[in-house]
Amino acid sequence: MDVVAKAWTWLATGSHWAGPDGVWHRLGQHLFLTFVCLAISCAVALPIAVALGHIGKGGALAVNISNAGRAVPTFAVLVLLLLSPLGTHGQWPTIIALVLFAVPPLLTNAYVGVREADREVVEAARGMGMTGGQLIRRVELPLAFPLVMTGVRTAAVQVVATATLAALPGGGGLGRIITAGFRLTDTPQVVAGAVLVAALALVVEGVFVVLGWVLDPMRRRTGRRAAARLPADQAPQSPALTA
Amino acid sequence: MADGNCLISNEWICGEYVRTRGQELTDATLEHVWITLASVAIGLVVAFPLALLARRWRVVAGPVLGMTTILYTVPSLAMFSLLLPVFGVSAAVVITGLVLYSLTILVRNIMAGLASVPEEAREAARGMGYGPLRLLFGVELPLALPALMAGLRITTVSTVSLTTVGAIIGYGGLGNLIYEGMRSFFKAEVLTASVLCVALAVVADLLLLALQRLLTPWARKSRKGTT
After folding, report:
1. CB contact (8 A) between residue A165 and residue B75
2. How many domains does chain B have?
3. Vertex A104, ends A100 and A109: CA angle to 5°?
4. Among partner residues A72, A79, A193, which is closest to B181 by beta-carbon distance?
5. Does A169 lie at the interface with B, CB-CB under 8 angstroms?
6. Alpha-carbon gap, residue B220 to B215, rounded angstroms
7. What is the pLDDT of residues B120-171, one digit of tens each?
8. 3.40.50.300, 1.10.730.10, 1.10.10.10, 1.10.3720.10: which CATH number matches A2-242?
């Protein structure tokens, strides 16, 4: 495969990594966008999801918002926002689109996590006289942690993917290397850019898998139960169980 | 000329656009539909044996599920770009990418469906002299249908939405119109194509739901507790 060799040469060329169109700068933009948008989405979605899960209301909302997020094409939203009055405000259309698509997985997973925290444990805690706030902080959140992290991980991967697409309407990030390659009909550059984007997505996924494992508050206390919970953790991703 | 006003003033909603570009919209919708249909159909054909293999040999299950998860992580723009040198500029790039995405959910759901078949049903069928093939297609597959159909619905809806990204190489169905509208700042074109795309996803979902009801009449009865 000639293209693979040429793509490798592209990646190995130092000048492609430097400057405002270089890989480092684009990677910086991509990471900046990812973290800012992920932080905003978490700040918006997680409190709502935990509150709804705690009082046990809004389950239909949590499921439907997830389905809607799947049906609406990211590309369409990016372009619609660009053409809207917001389009003239620099990065804002991209940031809004990224947040919009990061919210559904966060909301659904955190809601299900809190909602399905072991009811017996929750009842016991309530019987011990815990207030609502204590219940959330000391019982429901630690129990829901694996699912909350699944949501954060899914959202992070979604943000990386959407930020790539944002290059089509002219946003920053690694996607620009791909779109520039298309404009120049330079297939090796397209492939090199795609390899970088795919690698970034996999690294982000990997980082959050490790984070979820390391930060799990229940890991040390009940190692065996955490392992037994694994299949349930994948429940929201496994459509058979949510549909 | 009064009718052409919304085209000139570049409004979001423009009846004149729909009237004058009806052909363009129909063609794009048809392309969208056949790319989606081809991807989901091929996805099913590939996912089914993969799920059977993963069920038969546990050694296969790990790598199959791992690979499909990794594929799902790759952003769509990168996926299509990586497939570009393999197929050149053709619909095969988009369809292959969409098939690879569909495997994640389809394989998982087919496996979940087959795992949910009660052992007694299998035993009864074997006792009645069912061979392995007849057992699979006559007993296990029908009982696995609810999970399979749920996966099929999710896959179809996300495939409809992801097809738009195919516009990068000119095979994106309605995505082509969104791409074109983006370059010329043509609001009516972008909005009309986007709305059609969402409508397509909703219609496909409802059709599959109806098909599921039709194929599993016992599921409705069991809710009332008769079986």
Report:
1. yes
2. 1
3. 150
4. A79
5. yes
6. 11
7. 999 999 999 999 999 999 999 999 999 999 999 999 999 999 999 999 999 9
8. 1.10.3720.10
